[in-house]
Amino acid sequence: MKKTLLFSLIALLISVSVTAQNKKEQDQKSIKSMCGCYDVQFNFTETFSYSDDSTYQESKIKHEKVLEWVYLLEDNEDKIVMQHLLIVGNPMRPTIVKHWRQDWLYENTDLYEYHANNIWKYVQKQENDVQGQWTQKVFQVDDSPRYEGSSTWVHVDGRHYWENSTDAPLPRREHTTRDDYNVTYRRNRHEITSDGWIHDQDNDKIIREEGTEDVLLAQEKGFNTYVKVADSRCKVAQNWWEDNKAMWALARKNWDIVFARNTDLELEYKVNDLRLHETFYGLKPAASNAEVKQVIDSFVK
Fold this sequence. Notes:
With 301 residues, this protein is α+β, with helices and mostly antiparallel strands. It has helices spanning 2-32, 172-175, 235-259, 276-281, 289-299; strands at residues 36-49, 62-75, 79-88, 95-106, 110-116, 119-124, 134-139, 145-151, 154-156, 159-168, 183-193, 196-207, 215-229, 265-266.
């Protein structure tokens, strides 16, 4: 009787382990399916405003189409890294813009959660709280932190999606035109579709000041569609990355040293009257590790 019970428990543990491994493989497949060449449409509109100011002006509706290459930069058992590159301008002489980067970490316990005013709070989660989850870490065009959150990939009824809510800085489309709020509370959904994927967002525009409750200024809807096209259409971005990847590898290496401190992080808005991404753009593809490190160190308070 005892042997039968023992064998039953062993069989159950094996079954649970196999199921968890199959689920993880589904997660990895969904994440990596976001790589490739895409026709992208960015769509944003402010849906509701809550300001008492009669002169309040909502953000303009945004519709923008671009071509984007999403490159699989790293593919490990518990970490998947993807770099986004925009192809913009004259199709005959396009310009490549290093866009956002997304890192996916399995059962990660160390996060930098955005607070406000260029400050990220270090948070260490319990292992039980992230069991089976993936953290999406989103980085800005200069590989500095943007936002991150941990959630479970869902595979049900033929659908494959991951959704999470977290605080973030103002989006780039807003930070040069708006100064009446300082935090974006992002509700993000990444969903795999038959022809690519979608990035669905419902965002709150929040005023956050120390010692007071957050104030909701407005809300917005974002719906970005990624329709896969032939990789050959993104050849120019692939070539650009080959020419520039060494310098950005140094950037990631030096940022990782900063993040490994596992403490709150605050960044300068400007150094020598330049923003961080502007300073990086001044570096050459063959920049040395010392040059890259100096740039990052100058912005870390």
